[in-house]
Specification:
CATH class of the largest domain: Mainly Alpha
CATH topology of the largest domain: Globin-like
Number of helices: 12
Structural class: alpha/beta
Distance between the termini: 35 Å
Oligomer: single chain
Strand content: 15-25%
Radius of gyration: 22 Å
Order of helices and strands: HHHHHHHEEEEEHEEHEHEEHEHE
Number of domains: 3
Largest sheet: 6 strands, antiparallel
Strand order of the largest sheet: 4-3-6-1-2-5
Bound molecules: flavin-adenine dinucleotide, protoporphyrin IX containing FE
Shape: globular
């Protein structure tokens, strides 16, 4: 795909990307937001401030450079980026903006080391990746528009119902104002809300928390301390409020399996329960053995207990375990403390032939990931989502 010269020029930048990759991507975002404020609304400021987005992009750029001569080895990382971009509505016209700012950032951070030849090679490599992403994202947009109940771009929904699920999590039931059918989603997928709060455009992803096939989409939102959108939803979004919504996307979905009876282990912490409850709704009637482990601080913050108990009562294949680390008097968890390797071991089949899906705060995810590996679950059976840019779980494991 690339000439040998381009490949060696890109490969020569790998050591410097290892050292300076994050400095480059941090500088890239500064340049882009200064020169193209029109794209700022796509990005989450908190992910900028924490550095997670700059790290995720630096990781992707480094992986691309390191595998430039064998790109098939990193193809597995692309669906997540494609789905994230499509969820947020990234368009072809945004790519030249990112490309120009990225090349300028490489030039400015690397200084004399970034020769004209290196910049030209990176320009070529960027364009090839951009073309691939643009085509794949267009495919997602076209598929979402062509399917029954589908659409492209924004669609206006009205809040039909609000339900408090815990002291911090509230569900919003969204129905399309046009009263048309709804695009089917796969449990685990999320949609994107487009908001303007005090004149600031904001986009946020929210997992679909109800079973598929209902005449509404349900999202369940945790009130985050000082969070712009979550607090606005909790405080100002009432029945009748209209919201602009992009179609469901995401690749954190139940893997199709030839073995329909392979055990499924859903392990979540806090608001990480939202996609798992949708998965549970869909998988419970299949008869597949399911363990649903949920960690909460205490009963007041434990969402969806009633519904999960109902599903377990209705389906003998579903077993649940609730664990609280700071139980309040009167709480009735099955266990206290945190999800440990020993606890997980008790819920895994002896042959470890299991699909383990997990989601929660980062330390929780690092711990579950490490336990899963230590207990012999195959890495490709450990499936997870981040409620933000992808972070590294392996370092901790
Ligand atoms: C795929 C996916 C699915 C998701 N599903 C759900 C879901 O089902 N339910 C759910 O509740 N959430 C979900 N989220 C998270 C959601 O998208 C939002 O990130 C979350 O609601 C917080 O948004 P916010 O606007 O309220 O907070 P933000 O305004 O983004 O702030 C978040 C935190 O960062 C801090 N912060 C913000 N800006 C800065 C700054 N400039 N400097 C320093 N600190 C800052 C804030 O004080 C706050 O503590 C999901 C995210 C993803 C990516
Ligand atoms: C070749 C070019 C690009 C690459 C390699 C790339 C790579 C990435 C990666 C690795 C992530 C993190 C995914 C995750 O783990 O969640 C991401 C997220 C994102 N990308 Fe891109 N991207 C590219 C182009 C673009 C363009 C053109 C835009 C449009 C402005 C864009 C907007 C975004 C946004 C808004 C996010 C989510 C940010 C957040 O969570 O705050 N990207 N991209």
């Amino acid at each position: 795909m690339f000439s040998t010269q381009t490949i060696s020029l890109i490969q020569a930048t790998v050591p410097v990307l290892q050292l300076q990759g994050e400095a480059i991507t941090q500088h890239f975002y500064r340049l882009m937001f200064e020169h193209h404020p029109e794209v700022k609304g796509f990005f989450n400021e908190a992910h900028q401030a924490s550095g997670t987005q700059a790290r995720a992009l630096a990781g992707a750029v480094l992986a691309y450079a390191a595998h430039i001569d064998r790109l098939d080895e990193i193809a597995g990382a692309l669906p997540r980026i494609i789905q994230k971009h499509a969820a947020l509505g990234v368009l072809p016209e945004h790519y030249p903006i990112v490309g120009r700012c990225l090349l300028q950032a490489i030039k400015e951070v690397l200084g004399d080391a970034a020769t004209d030849e290196i910049i030209a090679a990176w320009g070529e490599a960027y364009q090839a990746l951009a073309d691939l992403l643009i085509a794949a994202e267009e495919q997602v947009y076209a598929d979402n528009a062509a399917r029954d109940g589908g659409w492209r771009g924004e669609r206006v929904f009205r809040i039909a119902r609000r339900v408090a699920e815990s002291e911090l999590i509230t569900s919003f039931y969204l129905e399309p104002v046009d009263q048309g059918p709804l695009l089917a989603f796969a449990p685990g997928q999320y949609l994107t809300l487009l908001l303007s709060i005090d004149g600031q455009p904001l986009r946020r992803n929210y997992s679909l928390s109800d079973a598929p096939g209902k005449p509404w989409y349900r999202i369940s939102v945790k009130r985050e301390a000082n969070g712009r959108v979550s607090n606005w939803l909790h405080d100002h979004a009432t029945v009748g409020t209209e919201l602009r919504v992009l179609p469901p996307c995401g690749d954190f979905v139940l893997a199709p399996t030839a073995d329909t009876q392979r055990p499924l282990l859903l392990v979540t912490g806090g608001v990480g329960i939202t996609p798992a409850i949708s998965m549970l709704e869909a998988a419970a009637p299949t008869g597949r053995p399911i363990r649903f482990i949920h960690a909460a601080r205490h009963g007041g913050l434990h969402a969806f207990r009633h519904r999960v108990d109902e599903l377990a009562a209705a389906h003998a294949n579903v077993e649940v375990l609730y664990i609280y680390d700071q139980p309040r008097p009167g709480d009735t968890p099955h266990a206290t403390g945190v999800v440990t390797t020993d606890l997980l071991a008790d819920h895994l089949p002896a042959d470890r032939d299991v699909d383990l899906y997990f989601l929660g705060p980062k330390p929780f995810m690092q711990s579950v990931y490490g336990s899963g590996l230590a207990l012999g679950v195959a890495p490709d059976r450990l499936r997870y989502e981040f409620f933000g840019p992808l972070e590294d779980l392996k370092a901790a494991a």
